[in-house]
Amino acid sequence: MNAKLSRRKTLAMLSAMPLAAAAPPARAAASLGETARRAGITYGAAAAGVIFEDPRYRLLYLDHCRAITSDVDLKFDWLRPHSPDQWDWGPADRLLAFAERTGMAFRGHTLIWNENPPRWLKKLSLAEIRRVFDEHIDTVCGRYSGRIAVWDVVNEPFWPGHGKKGGYRTGPWYEAFGPSYVERAFVRARAADPHAVLALNEAHCERFDDVGNGIRKGMKQLVARLLDAGAPLQALGFQAHLQPHIPHDDKRFAAFLRGFGDKGLDIHITELDVNDESFPDPVRKRDALVARRYGDFLRAVLAVPRVNTVINWELADRYSWYAGLARAGQLRSRRPPRPLPFDSGYRPKAAFHAMMKAFRGRKET
């Protein structure tokens, strides 16, 4: 996902906000995770350190999630913010230990991403960047080998706005290797961790505008090249930060996913939420429109047999990345966004019920 406000700043802002209420949240009568499991889906959410600071929020994960994605703790700039020789393993270790203790599968997000390189990396020569690339994958995958269910090996390889041939996203890894960095990352990740499912994660593919059209085209070409080369690609992640004000076509998107499934790849929905900035102010009406968007999207994609994972990007509105964007004035309104299945008081919303209905309606594959 892309935003002018960094995830580091967003999480700091949100964790400093007062809790919505002191009373325990009303616990949902049914579990998203259990309902999804019955339909052959692994359901979960991204999480950061706030789940250890907010026990009420942590309870939502215990009740509803069967998987956790690391929000920021395994990103390059969080693991190695200050220098090539200093590693900060603590937050990632803690989150993984929580997942293991509670029986949740863990998704490592992400090994390689061209965004947000730390200052020290940008000062290196291309030869040094290549060395760091290999070292990073070997070290991180080696440390957690056998403990990570899925690695997002490469995140968001495309951004047509950067003007690169093939629509690739530029950044240190692309500049050091060109497009071949993607295959190189998968090969090294498999060598360092023989156990994890290796995934390629991308954004915006559900959009049917120039951006989405360009990225879907790039993904088709890249996946074909990786498979032809024998790269250990096993799954594709599609973020699905749904933007109702941008043209979309759920049936055509589902057909796009089905084409990859026909190639033997598993399909994961990895960062699901709904941007409600274009919806009217009244909460009840806004929630109903968010829920409708969840329902329409999930009905379409869950009809694709190889879709076996659905991950929300956080669980409750209070900790959505959109909350940080709103506070920073980067959305149409500073009103509190409501993009997730639980509100800021940790109560299930209409979106929760729409997701439950979609999971129940999916025939187990």
Question: Could you please describe the fold and organization of this structure?
Answer:
The protein is an alpha/beta fold. The protein has a single domain, classed as Glycosidases (TIM Barrel, Alpha-Beta Barrel), CATH 3.20.20. It has 15 helices and 9 strands. The protein has an 8-stranded parallel beta barrel, surrounded by 6 helices. Helix 2 packs parallel to helix 15. The chain is globular. About 3% of the residues have low confidence.
Give me the secondary-structure category: alpha/beta
- The fraction of residues assigned to DSSP E strands is 5-15%
CATH class (first level) name: Alpha Beta
Strand order of the largest sheet: 1-2-3-4-5-6-8-9
Shape: globular
Write down the overall mean pLDDT: 93
Q: Report the sheet with the most strands, covering strand number, pairing sense and barrel closure.
A: 8 strands, parallel, barrel
Question: What is the helix tally?
Answer: 15
What order do the helices and strands come in, and which of them pair?
Layout: H1 7-15, H2 32-38, E1 42-47, H3 50-53, H4 55-64, E2 67-70, H5 76-79, H6 90-102, E3 105-112, H7 119-122, H8 126-144, E4 150-155, H9 172-177, H10 181-192, E5 197-202, H11 210-228, E6 235-238, E7 241-242, H12 250-261, E8 266-274, H13 283-301, E9 307-312, H14 321-327, H15 350-361
Parallel strand pairs: 1-2, 1-9, 2-3, 3-4, 4-5, 5-6, 6-8, 7-8, 8-9
